[in-house]
Fold this sequence. Notes:
This is NAD(P)-binding protein. The protein is an alpha/beta fold. The chain has helices spanning 42-52, 65-78, 94-108, 132-143, 145-153, 182-201, 218-224, 236-247, 265-270, 272-276; strands at residues 31-35, 57-62, 83-88, 111-116, 157-166, 206-211, 258-260.
Amino acid sequence: xxxxxxxxxxxxxxxxxxxxxxxxxxxxxxxxxxxxxxxxxxxxxxxxxxxxxxxxxxxxxxxxxxxxxxxxxxxxxxxxxxxxxxxxxxxxxxxxxxxxxxxxxxxxxxxxxxxxxxxxxxxxxxxxxxxxxxxxxxxxxxxxxxxxxxxxxxxxxxxxxxxxxxxxxxxxxxxxxxxxxxxxxxxxxxxxxxxxxxxxxxxxxxxxxxxxxxxxxxxxxxxxxxxxxxxxxxxxxxxxxxxxxxxxxxxxxxxxxxxxxxxxxxxxxxxxxxxxxxxxxxxxxxxxxxxx
Length: 292
């Protein structure tokens, strides 16, 4: 499947402009929190990218401790000076998120970067054929965290903090392209709008929504299915390095926007004036209707 692109160049892997080794992208002395950070996940790879960029304090959140410990071990092996904290939590439950926020604040201090990578996709089926509880549980996990984050994590950030919500390009492509995935796609669409509200209600917070590309995980295997032969997969490091770039001042003009990690950052910088002059560009709007 080919996707539309905001830039002429559509990346599938690392390129120098988003390299965590660039001094301009350093996150030295910053505290980073990553949800969905289990081993082999997008979140785990994102955490490694921030470690490469110099983060000295990193908190990893997921439901399974053994998976988190595996991610921690990889970071510790490559970056022994980094302090990594493992916290198990269910992002759909307010009490669990509140306890995680308290533990991280007590253990690592106030945070600077929050990369939200946790999500779930239920069994692929039609709306009518879905188990109603499982179908709705996807909404609870994928959308309720915005409220939990605002109440429990937001008060514990430093000035100028950055929140990055990992979304899915599938949420605004036609339903015919992703059959039997209504709960996932609709909940991700709702989450993108909630990111917009987080930005509007908290102007001191740098908010970005990101499509992470098509990375091979257990979740994406379900979406790809029999179409794998026609799908070009993206390297997991691409989204991690792209998020590191988003934390830098170079991305300031993209605050509050929905961007794809595949889009070339230098080309986006060249379009800075166009983006800044159009408040609806790269935001969730109603296609086919000129409502501004």
